Amino acid sequence: GLPSVAPRSAGMPRVAEGATVPPDRERAIASGRLILVAEDHPVNQELIRHQLALLGFACDVTNDGVEALAALEQISYGCLITDCHMPNLSGYELARRIREREQGGARHLPILGITANTAPEDLKLCCDAGMDDCLVKPTRLATLRDYLSRWFGADSARQTAPVETVSVPPVSGPDARGAPEPFVPVDLGHMTQLWGSESTVKALLDSFVSSVREDVRALAPLLERIEIERLREWHHRVAGAASVLQYPPLLNALEDYRRDITVKAPERLRSDGLVLASKCNAMLDGIEEQAALLA
Hints:
Four Helix Bundle (Hemerythrin (Met), subunit A); 5-stranded parallel sheet; two-stranded antiparallel ribbon; 11 helices; 52% helix
């Protein structure tokens, strides 16, 4: 959905295709354009940080609503982009507390919520909490640009053209039984069109592999003593990161494990969880090989 040739604003330096000039943070503060991001997962943090840079915005990133509230006490931000579901303090509660603080004053901080849920009742929760707009994960670069343009003017979000990506042949990884299983590559061309540049895709894949490997390691202790709610929380976290890539093999494997999670016996949840961990590690190995070719 992005133009094949990116327009260049007057006075804006020309950069190589796919390169990103980091916005100046102090200048962004002075002009009221510094954006605060509240997001708990490193993959989503990496994606939105790169997307904002491509659009010409500087940002500060916090890990939850508690950190975001503390940051808002120190700096005057031009906009808040918050995940709706976070530990410690959710995006909904964060928005409500900000609106309570603003009562009786002239200040109104634009708040954009981000949610993986598209049900009308979930989107209504964003409005009820005091958010101005709601984005659906994973957010395309063009969509983010359009939403920010509502608050910063139509010409303030710089448009960036997608670049060509490297074609990567399939690589093999072991399945849960030890037999080789073809690896289905991530569609790098599609990702570049969505996220805005090959450098963004490279950074996103590196962050994805690193953070999801930690999540997979965190599954083992959860399988020793089965607690359904903790497994659900783990699944929500990993599925949220996987949805950014829109990678069907991983999403399907996670959904297979989630299905009927409340009625499966603990022994079945444990054995299926070990199989899932093995599948995830094999996919991450393949994605890591793909990302290495983008260096």
